[in-house]
Design goal:
globular; seven-stranded mixed β-sheet; about 150 residues
Length: about 150
């Protein structure tokens, strides 16, 4: 299988840092995502992920460290997730890492609270081929992870 090049898009005031690494299976989006034209930012990501799933790593880590994102960004993130769940190997794993302020993390103390908080995106994972899990981190004001929990979907 032909190796695809890593995709790096530098952060701006309105768009996130994007670092997609085919060799490691690390897909990182961090910062704010409030672009006026989300397609301009996310279309290359969508195309890259579409190529990546043809020869993915056994474990793919999608790290969403977005302090804020707008509706158009969330639509593109859902499209990207829909591609990633088509990794065509049931022995492979997709781990979605979400980073939340510690205050928000602490509000979700019970498993049912966490499950309910992410119910709107749960439908995306119906029919997923790889195993999918969600790891939620509580981070301090410096972005340091203080607590975490794993939810299997």
């Amino acid at each position: 299988m032909k190796e695809i090049k890593n995709l790096i898009i530098e952060q701006t005031l309105k768009s996130p840092q994007i670092d997609l690494n085919q060799l490691t299976g690390e897909l990182i989006l961090s910062g704010k995502s409030i672009p006026e034209n989300a397609a301009k930012i996310y279309e290359p990501v969508f195309q890259w992920v579409t190529s990546y799933i043809l020869d993915p790593k056994p474990t793919t880590n999608l790290r969403l460290d977005l302090e804020y994102f707008n509706t158009s960004s969330s639509i593109w993130l859902a499209k990207i997730l829909k591609v990633l769940i088509r990794i065509n190997n049931p022995d492979y794993v997709l781990i979605i890492h979400l980073y939340l302020p510690i205050e928000d993390f602490d509000e979700m103390k019970e498993f049912d609270d966490i499950k309910d908080a992410f119910a709107p995106i749960a439908d995306i994972f119906v029919g997923a081929i790889p195993s999918v899990s969600l790891k939620v981190y509580g981070v301090d004001e410096n972005g340091k992870s203080i607590k975490d929990t794993v939810v299997y979907i």
